[in-house]
Amino acid sequence: MYNIYKKISLKLDILLQGKGCYSAIGKIWFRQRQELSVGSICEHFHTVAHELAHALGIFHTQSRPDRDRYVIINEQNAQRNQKTNFRAEKSAKCATYDIPYEYGSVMHYRTHEFSVNRKATVIPRNPLYVQTMGSGTGPSFLDVLLVNKHYNCLSKFRKFSGKQI
C-alpha cells in the first residue's frame, strides 16, 4: 500500500460503461480525478469491491512481499499485458500491517486468472487453499481490517466489528 496517499483526498470517477475492470492503485498524484472502470463484464460486487480496494491503495494479495511463502507464481503462464499483476511488491511500497496472508481475500486471484495457456498462474503452497483463492463474494474481515489499518481508522473498526485489534 502507498503510505504517501493516506493524506491525499481521492476524487473518484466511476465509469459504469467502462471498457473493462480497472483502477490505479492508490491516488495518482498528478491527476485531479481517478477513474474506476466497471464495464459490463465486471458488474459483480466482488469485482467492484476489488477495484475499489485498488483505488484505496490496496495491492493484490499475491503481490505481497511475503507471498513466496504462500504461493508459487507461474508468470510464464500469464497474459503478457497482465504480468505486472503477478509481480511481488517491495515491502517499502506494500505494507502488510502484520495481517496474515489471506487466500480468501477479495484481492487474491484464482489459480488460472489471466492464463494464456489454461495452466495455473497462481498455485498455493498448501493445496487445501486451491478452491479458496478468488472465491470470495466481497471484502473479507481481513480486507476491511487492512484498509482500516492503512487509514488509521481502528477505533471505528473496533466499534463496528466488536473485535479488539
TrEMBL record:
GO BP terms in the entry: proteolysis
Cofactor note: Binds 1 zinc ion per subunit.
Disulfide bond in keyword set: yes
Cofactor dependency: Zn(2+)
EC numbers on record: 3.4.24.-
Keywords tagged on the record: Disulfide bond, Hydrolase, Metal-binding, Metalloprotease, Protease, Zinc
Gene3D superfamilies: Collagenase (Catalytic Domain)
Keyword Ribosomal protein applies: no
Domain Peptidase M12A: 1-154
Catalytic residues (UniProt): 51
Binding site for Zn(2+): 50, 54, 60
Molecular function as annotated in GO: metalloendopeptidase activity; zinc ion binding
Protein name in UniProt: Metalloendopeptidase
